[in-house]
Amino acid sequence: MSNATTQFQRGSLLLPVFGRATVADAMHPGILCCDPDASLTKVARVMSTHHVHCVAVMTLAHGESGESVVWGMISDLDLLQAGLDDDAEPTARMLANQPIITVKPSTSLREAGQAMVDHDVSHLVVVEPETQRPIGIVSTLDLAHLLAWGEV
């Protein structure tokens, strides 16, 4: 039997140093979403099936475009809090946090982290700079990943 221990090394050739990293380096592309009228159970199933900690609530934009826009975000903590209440079966509309905090892919991770702290949120919606269309999510865990494994 060996007495060897596993040692994790800080640094990676694939990840930049946290201080030089941008949201694009850490974000998850794509967004899982639901309708504003989705039930608590449906939102929970989306999170559970995809092993995610947030779901975007999407609705149609007002105006000519008719595109869907992120209207609110439901975190796993929001879901848990609603699930503890035996009296009601809330909809996504009732659970969603607003306003949505957005960042561009070129935003530094330091700025993104500060936005999370300032707005008391754990997820930011990443938007395309020209169109403001959502293209992904960045979370506190994504930032922690680069803090832990970013190149020295």
Q: Could you explain how this protein is built, in words?
A:
It is a single chain. The protein has one domain (19-149): CBS-domain. It is of the alpha/beta class and 152 residues long. Mean pLDDT is 84; it is low at 1-12. The protein is 32% helix and 21% strand. The two termini are 34 Å apart. It has helices at 23-26, 40-50, 76-83, 92-95, 109-119, 140-149; strands at residues 28-29, 33-34, 54-60, 68-75, 102-103, 123-127, 134-139. A 4-stranded mixed β-sheet has the order 1-7-6-5. The protein has a 3-stranded mixed β-sheet with strand order 2-3-4. The protein is globular, with a radius of gyration of 18 Å. Helix 2 crosses helix 3. The protein is built from 6 helices and 7 strands.
Mind sketching the topology for me?
Elements: H1 23-26, E1 28-29, E2 33-34, H2 40-50, E3 54-60, E4 68-75, H3 76-83, H4 92-95, E5 102-103, H5 109-119, E6 123-127, E7 134-139, H6 140-149
Parallel strand pairs: 2-3, 5-6
Antiparallel strand pairs: 1-7, 3-4, 6-7
